[in-house]
Every structure is written in C-alpha cells, then in structure tokens.
Amino acid sequence: MARFRTWLGIALAGALSVSLAGCSSTGGKRAEDARKAAAAQGRAAVNTPRWTFAMITHSGDGDTFWDIVQSGAKQAAVKDNIEFLYSHDAQAQQQAQLVDAAIDKKVDGIIVTLAKPDALKAAVARAEKAGIPVITVNSGSEVSRQFGALTHVGQDETVAGEAVGEELTERGRKKALCVLHEQGNVGHEQRCAGVAKTFRGTVQNLYVNGTNMPDVQSAIGARLQADKSFDAVVTLGAPYADTAVKAKRDAGSAAEVDTFDLNAKVAGELADGTLGFAVDQQPYLQGYQAVDLLWLYKYNGDVLGGGRPVLTGPQIVTRDQAPALREYTGRGTR
Fold this sequence. Notes:
This protein has 334 residues and is an alpha/beta fold. The chain has 13 helices and twelve strands. Helix content is 52%, strand content 16%.
C-alpha cells in the first residue's frame, strides 16, 4: 500500500502543478486567493476567444459529488474565458440526447461521462464527426480512446477497487459487503471486482436502489443482520456511507464502514472514527482538468496523457488526513 500511494503521488504531481499552482502553504494560499478573486470578478486570465464547452454527466438529482466536479469546471472556465454549460441525466438514453443537444448548439468542446458507454457511443461519434473535441471524465476510461475522445480524466475504477482490497487486507478484515447503488454502471462493477481481486477475504455484492435511501438502509441492514460475519461494508459513493453507518447500527453489526468518494459528512466521520477510510478520486480536479485540457487543445493543440487516462485517483484517506479534508470539503473543492 505504501508503494501504491507513492506511485499515485508521482502520477498526480504533474496534474496538480498545473491546476493548483504551487504546493507550499504560502504559494497555495496565493493561488487560492487569485482563483477566488477571478471567480468573484468574472475575469479571465487569458485573451483567447470566448469558446463554449458543455459537460454532460450521468448524475442524478442532488448528488453532491457532481457539485464538486462542477465547482472545479466552473473555476477553470472563468480562468480560461469559457462559457460553461452543464446538464445531466441518470438515464443513459436521455444523457445521449443531451450530448446531441450540445452538438446542435455547435459548442466548441464536450466533456461527457461514460457510465453506460454503449448508450453514449453513437452520440460521441456524432460529436467527433461534427468536429467537436470530446474529453471523457470520471467513467469510461477503458473505451474513451476507442470512442474517439482526446483523453480521459478520472481514476481507473479497477485500480481503485484493488486499492480498497489491499487496504481491507491490511486492516485485517475477513468478509466485506460491496454496495452497488446504480445497476448498469460499469464503473461500479469494476470497483467491486477490483476489491475482490486483491482482498484476501471474501466479498459479496449487494445491489440497492440508490435513489431511495430508506430502501438502501433497509437492504444493508437486512444483510448485516442475517450474516454477522461481515466485518466491512464498502459503499461506492459518499452519500451512501452515512446510510450504511445507520444500517449497521440498526443491525447491531460491528462491521467497519468504508467508502469511495468524499463530502463534508465523510470528512467529519473519518475524523471521529465513524468511518475507517475513504477513496478520493478528486472530483474537483476532474472538472478543472477537463475544462483546462479542452482549452489547451483548442488554443495550442495540446493533448495530455499520450492516449492513456489522466489519473486523479485513487488516494486512500484516513483519520490522519481528516482535519485538512474538512477544510477542503467545507469550501467545496474535495
């Protein structure tokens, strides 16, 4: 795990140097102040044309993860003199129609998620045919290049799952419940498969209806009550972590709850020990880099990644990192 974290730190160093403009506390503060000032005043840092970029995601309503992605994208858009359009739909066919609508608007670039890639393939092809550059983000890294996208920004979901399996093993866990809240999402399947690949214990998948939190809590609680041998629960999104905590308490289970992704609640529960660890894929960075890379392509023909995904994660975060995380999540950047 130590080697994994070291490798990830090296892989992210270049990306972070572009987007965060400095690692020291003083330099980082100056960069953050400059970004806040630019956002408040609506001033671009460049004099390139006022291009329009559209981001279309598979997010459902009220998903805080995508608020963070948008926060990063909007910040980069201000800096790069970009008009940023955001739309989303959890239904893949409707998401594809939103991509078509962006093409009809003759936008200058498209950022799209490929959680259900088969439904988006034709729409991405139409964008390419129309001469609109596409960057995929968050999900779909394995098909991004095949579909004709310039690059993919996000974490490799299989690698992320493998990191979780290694962490569970290191913590001495023996039996884990992996909770999938969106059926048909290939990234979720890859996460749980990755956990099973490296975890020396056993993994069972539990499919739940992620749009109904009471049902999610009931389903997790029922499984934990029926099988007291579960000593770990892994949720695939930050909003589901607290629900899993409630479910395990109702079931009288001693299982540790761990999760993918961060929000303010997760940061707080890491701090007080309610959660064991979280996997951060840095959604702010996904949004920021996607816009910035499209701008670089339009301005200078630059393509980052050499045909391979630009990784923003995974990063295992624990109670040790919680104080800093609470600050970052509070301002909407982690």
